[in-house]
Amino acid sequence: MYAFFMQKNERNNKKMELVTKKPRGTEDKLPKEIYKWHTVEKIARNVAEAYGCKEIRTPTFEHTELFQRGVGGTTDVVQKEMYTFND
User: Fold this and answer.
1) CB within 10 Å: which end of the chain, N or C, has fewer?
2) What is the C-alpha separation between 57 and 13, in angstroms, rounded?
3) 37 with 28: CB under 8 angstroms?
4) What are the C-alpha distances in Å from 76 to residues 5, 73, 81?
5) pLDDT tens-digit map of 22-55
């Protein structure tokens, strides 16, 4: 995700920008094109509901340990293709 934050500098009350790069392989959907996603999601939701399916929400993040145990701590998935946040 490409994040853009505005903060005020405590000393001179000017706004400071903090920009981070989005993770490799991801893509942002901007307001001009998000309507396409809304249309596809609405159609998919209607079809699923017609067949009796109910919506669920799963976590966006998982614990690193889950992948270390599942695929091994030395695999590319764990070492190169995922981001770990230390609490």
Assistant:
1) C
2) 40
3) no
4) 31, 9, 6
5) 777 888 888 888 999 999 999 999 999 999 999 8
With cut-offs at 50, 70 and 90, classify the pLDDT of residue 1: very low
pTM of the model: 0.45
* Tokens 């270390």, located at residue: 68
What is the distance between the alpha carbons of residues 46 and 54, in angstroms, rounded to a whole number? 10
Q: What is the pLDDT of residue 79?
A: 65
pLDDT the model gives residue 76? 65
Q: How far apart are the first and last CA of the chain?
A: 19
Which DSSP string do the residues of 40-69 spell out, in sequence order? Answer: HHHHHHHHHHHTT-------S---HHHHHH
